[in-house]
Amino acid sequence: MPSDLIPGVDPPIQLSLELPVKKFAGNFSSRGMTMPKIDLAKVPVHTGSRYPAPYDVPCRDRHRLRLGDGGGLTQFGVNLLTLKPGVWSSQRHWHHLEDEFVYILSGEVVLITDAGEEVMKAGDCAGFPAGERNGHHLVNRSNADATLLEVGSRIRGEFGVYPDIDMLFDARGFTRKDRTPY
Predict the structure, then answer these.
(1) What is the pTM of this model?
(2) Which of 85, 122, 162, 164 has the highest CB neighbour count under 10 A?
């Protein structure tokens, strides 16, 4: 069986060896194939949030390194998020179509959901299934930086709700709950 066929599948599936090369912060081999290591120095850091005022204030000093974008990923996002003391990961929200996952790498944060508050430390993780109407966010109430890995799917037509404030989001951006723009 030729090496470009997937074994054990009847009928065999022909693999395309002509893969599109995307622009990203990775390295390239001498054969033009992309290498998986991401050059972190080439991945931009996004600081703050796109929330309309005054909802942006608690998130202004959050720093997100978009690792998934740096690796050319399109079906899910991966971020390295740093929260300074007193900073929030986001406004409390839930997603209609997208799953989210967080893993605490260092420091301590408080996970706030509809069920209450829970302290999370390095090695702790949490998942937020799509469509579960349980608003969530993380707040750094400690005196040191906290760093976490965020992973989430990227689904067309996604929208979500911020249950504590007058805000929704969709592909066009943020609106009030009556759908009037900010």
Answers:
(1) 0.80
(2) 162
